[in-house]
Amino acid sequence: MRILVIGAGATGGYFGGRLLESGQDVTFLVRAARAAQLAAQGLVIRSSHGNTTLPSPATVQAGALHDTFDLVLLSCKAYHLPQVIEDMAPAVGPHTMIVPLLNGMRHLDVLDERFGKERVLGGQCVIAATLDKQGVVHHLNQSHSLTFGERSGERSERAESVLASMSQARFEARLSTTILQDMWDKWVFLASLAGITCLMRAPVGDIMAATGGEAATLQLLEDCRRVAALNQHAPADTVLARACSVLTEKDSKLSASMMRDLEQGGQIEADHVIGDMLARAGADAESLTMLRTAYAHLKAYEARRDGGR
User: Fold this and answer.
1) CA-atom Rg of the chain in angstroms
2) Looking at residue 230, what is its pLDDT?
3) What are the CA-CA distances from residue 298 to residues 201, 213, 275, 301 (Å)?
4) With 90 as the cut, is the pLDDT of residue 37 above it?
5) Considering the chain, what is the average pLDDT of its residues?
6) Correct CATH for 2-177 of 3.30.540.10, 3.40.50.300, 3.30.390.30, 3.40.50.720
């Protein structure tokens, strides 16, 4: 199976690197600077699950991409998606499978419109990783799972072929027959985490120590749960209980990457993660006070950031 990984940053570099390490035919679509860095020092991964250095991984740049691939593993920030779609378009043939690892759901609509729904599987990953200034991928915790599947729930032959390709790699690969529910479950948790940590500019533990912090967190979680339920994807009680436990853990240092991006003055996925959640509430959006407040806060940040620039 020929695999194109979009980007070789923290997420793409980790999962793509693990696939390459296991002997898969992997090419990375990267920009010129990252291509030069990979050619000079290789793809370097530092992880408690095993360090590796992969010399001179195959790379290609936009404009030089002409061949089609069997699988495109798509990992990017939502605000880069329009350009990424144009860059990767030559790689998508009649039988290409696209597995996106973005958060939320709106990217599925965008990819469907551009490439056709039959080419776009559901997908998600759970990992904490970062790319340092030297281009080294640092895996920061024990989690490194990648879940994918047909959005119809079918356990298809092509999905099985993806699982076979991923099964030898040093990460947890799972073929799901409930991938849309899996994606909604993650989105409900992530939107709650991003919304509350950005709104309070603090990690979970500090929010729990603040008067009214737990109540605000639980109300935001309930707002997101309601949106999922309105879209026929309400989280199971066990999923909700786990999210609640993590979001209210005292002394927790957990915060969303969106909060870190915001504090550094960077671009954020306000519309994709929070705004689209609110949009999918339809007429019920007016009653989702905490979700609306979180979104307003993020949009005010974007307006100030764009105005400053």
Assistant:
1) 19
2) 98
3) 11, 18, 9, 5
4) yes
5) 96
6) 3.40.50.720
Residues marked active site are found at 186
Contact 126, 14 (CB under 8 A): no
**For residue 60, which of 48, 69, 50 has the smallest C-alpha distance?**
69
Q: What is the pLDDT of residues 109-165, one digit of tens each?
A: 999 999 999 999 999 999 989 999 999 999 998 999 999 999 999 999 999 999 999
Per the CB < 8 A criterion, the answer to whether 297 and 199 are in contact is: yes
Residue-level pLDDT at 307 = 85
Task: For the chain, give every residue range classified as CATH 3.40.50.720.
Answer: 2-177
What's the topology of domain 182-308?
N-(1-d-carboxylethyl)-l-norvaline Dehydrogenase; domain 2 (1.10.1040)
Q: Which two tokens stand for residue 107?
A: 């990217």
Task: Name the pLDDT band for 308 (thresholds 50, 70, 90).
Answer: low
